[in-house]
Specification:
- By secondary structure, this protein is mostly helical.
- The chain is built from seven helices and no strands.
- It has helices at 2-30, 55-76, 88-116, 122-156, 166-183, 189-192, 194-252.
């Protein structure tokens, strides 16, 4: 049993990592997705461009980037905006790569379970399957936690745009969860709880970032009101001074 699950576990993990590497490499270099199993020989092979984030998410991300950058520049005494484009496409590739790998894991895990039911005695099937999927599942969960940690660090820097990386992934994880739960039925509780734990982490970080972003907007508005009041007061003082100055000159003579 140990030999079987070790071999199949290694194969499953390599398949996921191979898909991830292929997806990133081809999407980043050509902007076109090809199946790893189909050699590219003809120029007229039908192609599919990598999906872009919905326009609303793109707009929100740019607005959050601008606001975050403005807030940071304001703290340093500047207010210049730099170009925001450049990394968006790469970010899309990373997001889509992770989403595809999550879906691939569920499908491959289903295939592995169907295969082992034909080979492994019934009373060993659940435990063998649990052991078999651990390496690939842990790798995906670790990558997900890395995404959460990156968003959390960005939020601490008041870069609220980074949290938008989480939302497409979070939506996909929630959509995938029912099938994930069904596939992992019979595995240990610690195994079944890994995806829900990641979902909770993403929800927590996302909610925290949005809450802080809303608070920062309120603080910014209050500061703008104070600044306007100060400017208005200075203008009033200047006008009073301008009016009183001739009178003072007359009295001083």
């Amino acid at each position: 049993m140990n030999v079987y699950y070790q071999i199949r576990s290694s194969q499953l993990d390599r398949s996921i990592k191979g898909l991830k590497e292929h997806f990133r490499k081809n999407s980043a270099s050509s902007g076109v997705l090809y199946s790893p199993a189909v050699p590219i020989k003809r120029k007229d092979t039908p192609t599919k461009k990598p999906p872009k984030r919905p326009g609303t998410i793109r707009k929100a991300q740019n607005l959050l980037k601008q606001y975050s950058q403005h807030a940071l520049e304001g703290k340093r005494g500047g207010c210049n905006f730099t170009p925001l484009e450049g990394k968006d496409d790469m970010l899309d590739v990373e997001i889509d790569s992770y989403i595809h790998c999550i879906s691939a894991f569920v499908k491959l895990a289903q295939s592995e379970y169907a295969l082992l039911t034909e080979i492994i005695p019934e009373h060993h099937q659940k435990k063998t399957f649990d052991s078999l999927i651990q390496e690939a599942l842990d790798s995906l969960m670790l990558e997900g936690e890395g995404i959460v940690s990156a968003a959390r660090r960005a939020t601490l820097r008041h870069d609220y745009s980074a949290v938008l990386t989480i939302f497409p992934i979070l939506r996909h994880l929630k959509q995938t969860k029912p099938e994930f739960d069904t596939t992992l039925q019979g595995t240990a509780a610690s195994t079944k709880n890994k995806l829900p734990t990641l979902i909770t982490s993403m929800e927590t970080v996302g909610a925290k970032a949005l809450e802080e972003f809303a608070d920062s907007i309120k603080d910014k508005e209050r500061q703008m009101i104070k600044d306007k009041f100060k400017v208005g007061t200075l203008k009033s003082h200047y006008l009073v001074g301008a009016i009183m100055s001739p009178s003072l000159d007359r009295f001083s003579r």
